[in-house]
Amino acid sequence: MEIGAITGHIDVAQVVLYAFWLFFAGLIIYLRREDRREGYPLEDGISGKVDNIGVVWMAEPKRFALPEGGFAEAPNFKRETRPLNAEPIAAFPGAPLQPTGDPMLAGVGPGAWAERQDIPDMTAEGQPRIVPMRSVSDYGVVDGDPDPRGMPVVGGDGKVAGTVTDVWVDTAEVLIRYIEMTVGDGDAARTVLVPGGFADVRGGKVDVPSIYSDQFSAVPGIAASDRITRLEEEKIMGYFGAGLLYADARRQEPLL
User: Fold this and answer.
1) 176 closest CA partner among 158, 200, 205, 153
2) Which of 204, 208, 214, 156 is nearest to 180 (CA)?
3) Which three-class secondary structure state does DSSP give residue 253?
4) What is the CA radius of gyration of the chain?
5) How far apart are CA 246 and CA 239, in angstroms?
6) Is the pTM for the entire model greater than 0.90?
7) Which domains does the chain have, with CATH numbers?
8) Nearest-CA neighbor of 228 among 141, 82, 122?
9) pLDDT tens digit string along 204-223?
10) For the chain, is the Cβ count within 10 Å smaller at the N or the C terminus?
11) Is the peptide bond before 41 cis (omega within 30 degrees of 0)?
12) CA-based nearest residue to 153, from 187, 115, 200
């Protein structure tokens, strides 16, 4: 027999090839099972009927320890219980959705947000991770960079919406996460947070082009004045994300 031959019809190369095929098939099955830990069960976009993908393709639930205590399981087979504030523009699967009611608060499209826990993100030391700069004495704006505190906030319509009162810092990443501002006057005044990624500080003002000046008053608020929860972050981010498309009806139309 030739070198590498096991029998007259089987050699080492064949065995290695077949072993690779079996390994690769097993890997595909494993990956397809693991990628179904979140986002399932699937629902038909028109009828809402749940798609049964079968036991073979669904992984066994795993328990994940949470840093704040307790456990989470995935997959958990929980279905979305929040009402969908949108309707399809046509009766076919995959049809685009258009918001119903106020599109800025509908929670769909670019304004969608996840139902995260209503607790703050914490540092390794057990302290709130994102806090206003006024509450942490060892943080400040670096010399040479513009300090937005006291600057006017200008919306996408070019009008002043309010004034910056403070900045909120991520003490774990050491950067500015939110700009705190006051909207309105007198009894109607309220404090809202603007995500740092939606703000451009330059020329002695803070530009926030995603929403218009009269829309700042409806920015989702926070329960405490010195911390922000994960759920509150989601809703605030969703509001400014929605503004990119829904702040003005003209933003939903093609450029040409």
Assistant:
1) 200
2) 208
3) coil
4) 26
5) 10
6) no
7) 117-252 (3.90.50.10)
8) 122
9) 999 999 999 999 999 999 99
10) C
11) yes
12) 200
The burial of 147, by beta-carbon neighbours within 10 Å (0-12 exposed, 13-18 middle, 19 or more buried), is given as middle
Structure tokens belonging to residue 75: 């997959």
How many residues are given for the chain?
A: 256
Which amino acid does the sequence have at 12? Answer: V
CA 61 – CA 64 distance, rounded (Å) = 10
Q: Which amino acid is it at 188?
A: A
Can you read off the two tokens belonging to residue 52? 């049964």
Structure tokens at 187: 């009894």
pLDDT digits (tens, 9 = 90+) for 86-118: 988 888 878 888 999 899 999 999 999 999 999
Omega before residue 220 within 30° of 0, cis:
no
Q: How far is 102 from 106, CA to CA, in rounded Å? A: 6
Task: Give me the amino acid identity at 17.
Answer: L
Which amino acid, residue 89? I
SS3 128: strand
- Is residue 163 within 8 A of residue 152, CB to CB? The reply is yes
Handedness of CA 156, 159, 162, 167 (dihedral sign): positive
